[in-house]
Design goal:
CATH class of one domain: Alpha Beta
Largest sheet: 9 strands, mixed
CATH topology of one domain: Rossmann fold
Order of helices and strands: HEEEHEHEHEEEHEHEHEEEEEH
Helix content: 25-40%
Shape: elongated
Bound molecules: flavin-adenine dinucleotide
Number of strands: 15
Radius of gyration: 23 Å
C-alpha cells in the first residue's frame, strides 16, 4: 500500500471514521458527562463471510418442562425434558432435582436416556450423589439439539406460556434457575467454554424496565445483573438507545465435549442406542431410568403437548477481537428480534423461532432477514458523538 494511503487511513481511524477492513472503532476518551465512550470492534457481517447455517428444534411445552418421578413396572422413571429455549440455562438445576428424585430408589445404578446437555448434567448430578450411570442415546454430541443452540443464559426464553404457569411450577423454576446460575458461574475460567460477556440491546425508544413483566417476572432479582442505559451519543449503534448487561455465554461445542469427558472421567458408560417403545425401556436392568430425551419424549412417552420450536443460526468467520453480544438491530420486520453471539467457532447470528415447525432445512427468507439485519446494524455503526 502507498505510504500516503496508509497515513490517510491511519488518520481516518484515529478520527474514528469507518475504514474498510478495519474492525475497531477508535473514539475519544469520555462523554461530557464523564462516562467513558464506548469502543467496540465492528462485526464484519457480509454474505461472503458466512460459513454455515444450522437448524435445531427446541423441545417446547406450553406448560413448561416436566420434572417428576413415576413408576414403570418396578423401575423408577424420572422425567426431565421439555426445556424449550432454556435447556442450557436450566439443566444443572433440573439435573439436581432429577437426581434427588432418583435417590428415592434404594439402588445406586441409573440409566440416563439422552446425551444432550440435559442428559449430561443430570448424569453429573447423579454421579455426585454416588450413582453408577450408563447413558443410552440415539445420538451424542455434536449431533444433538444442544449443539445447535446460541447459547446464552436465558432461563425464561421460550419456556412456558404465562396462562399455564402455576405457583408450584414457578417455585420449582426459581429453584432450578438459582442452582443452574451458580453451577455455570463455577465453570467460568475452566475449559468448559463458559464466560461472561456484555450484551448490548439496541432500540429507538427509551428502554423501559420490563423486569416485572411476563416471563421476566419469574426470575429472582439475584439472577439479574445490573443494566446500564446508554443514550444518544454514548454508544456506536445506529439506534438511539442501547442497554448493557453482563451475561453468561456458553459455547456449545466446547461445553458439550467437556461435559462428555467429565461424565466418562467419573465412570459413566455411553451406549449408542435408540428406544422405540416403553417396553424397550423396561428391558434395561438399572432400577432408575431418567428420561432426558428432549423432543424425543413426544414419541417415546406419547407427550403430545411437546412441540418443536425451530431455531436457525447463521455463522460468520470468527473474529476473536469481538467480545460483546448484541440483541436487536435493523430488520425489515419490526418486532422480530435478531441477535449476535461471538464464539470461538464463529460469529453466530440468530433470531428465528417457529413454533410447530418440524423441518430441519434452513429457511432462506429467515437467513436473509437475520444476515441482512446484522449487515445493516454493523454497517451503520459509528463512533459516538458526545451530545449527538
Ligand atoms: C437456535 C437455538 C438457540 C438456542 N438458544 C438457547 C439459549 O440461548 N439458551 C438456552 O438455554 N437454550 C437455548 N436453546 C435451547 C436448548 O438448545 C435446548 O433446550 C436443549 O438443547 C435441550 O437439551 P436436551 O438435552 O433436552 O435435548 P437434546 O440436545 O435434543 O438431547 C436429547 C438426547 O436424547 C436422545 N434421544 C431422543 N430420543 C431418543 C430415543 N427415543 N432413544 C434414545 N435416545 C433418544 C437424543 O439422541 C439426544 O442424545 C436453543 C436452541 C436452539 C435450536
Amino acid at each position: 500500500m502507498h505510504r500516503r494511503t496508509v497515513l490517510k487511513l491511519g488518520g481516518m481511524a484515529a478520527l474514528g471514521l469507518g475504514v474498510p477492513g478495519c474492525s475497531t472503532v477508535v473514539v475519544s476518551p469520555a462523554t461530557p458527562a464523564g462516562r467513558p465512550i464506548l469502543t467496540l470492534p465492528v462485526v464484519r457481517a457480509s454474505w461472503d463471510r458466512v460459513i454455515r447455517t444450522t437448524v435445531g428444534l427446541r423441545p417446547y411445552r406450553p406448560s413448561g418442562f416436566v420434572l417428576r418421578a413415576t413408576k414403570l413396572d418396578d423401575t423408577l422413571l424420572v422425567h426431565n425434558y421439555g426445556h424449550g429455549g432454556t435447556g442450557h440455562s436450566l439443566s444443572w438445576g433440573c439435573g439436581a432435582v432429577a437426581a434427588d428424585l432418583a435417590l428415592e430408589q434404594g439402588g445406586r445404578r441409573a440409566a440416563v436416556i439422552g446425551c444432550g446437555i440435559v442428559g449430561l448434567t443430570t448424569t453429573r448430578q447423579l454421579q455426585r450423589r454416588g450413582f453408577d450411570v450408563t447413558i443410552y442415546a440415539k445420538t451424542v454430541p455434536p449431533d444433538t439439539t444442544s449443539n445447535m443452540a446460541l447459547a446464552g443464559f436465558t432461563p425464561t426464553s421460550g419456556l412456558v406460556d404465562r396462562d399455564e404457569r402455576t405457583p408450584a411450577w414457578d417455585e420449582q423454576f426459581r429453584r432450578v434457575a438459582e442452582i443452574s446460575y451458580r453451577e455455570l458461574q463455577l465453570l467460568v475460567g475452566r475449559p468448559y467454554g463458559v464466560s461472561w460477556i456484555d450484551n448490548y440491546s439496541t432500540m429507538n425508544q427509551r428502554p423501559l424496565d420490563l423486569s416485572d413483566v411476563g416471563s421476566q417476572s419469574l426470575l429472582p432479582p439475584a439472577l439479574r445483573t445490573g443494566r446500564d442505559v446508554l443514550g444518544p451519543g454514548e454508544h456506536p449503534f445506529p439506534l438511539r438507545y442501547a442497554t448493557r448487561r453482563t451475561t453468561l455465554r456458553i459455547e456449545p461445542s466446547i461445553y458439550l465435549d467437556a461435559m462428555v469427558k467429565d461424565v466418562l472421567l467419573f465412570g459413566a458408560r455411553i451406549v449408542i442406542r435408540g428406544f422405540e417403545t416403553l417396553r424397550d425401556l423396561i428391558t434395561l436392568d438399572e432400577p432408575v431410568v431418567v428420561n432426558c430425551t428432549g423432543l424425543g419424549a413426544r414419541d417415546l412417552f406419547g407427550d403430545d403437548a411437546l412441540i418443536p420450536t425451530k431455531g436457525q443460526l447463521t455463522v460468520l468467520v470468527p473474529q476473536p477481537e469481538v467480545n460483546y453480544r448484541t440483541s436487536g438491530g435493523i430488520t425489515p420486520q419490526p418486532g422480530i428480534g435478531i441477535h449476535m453471539m461471538p464464539r470461538a467457532d464463529g460469529i453466530v447470528l440468530g433470531g428465528t423461532s417457529e413454533r410447530g415447525e418440524w423441518s430441519l432445512e434452513p429457511d432462506e427468507d429467515a437467513r436473509r432477514r437475520v444476515v441482512e439485519g446484522h449487515m445493516a446494524l454493523y454497517g451503520a455503526m459509528r463512533p459516538p458523538t458526545p451530545g449527538g
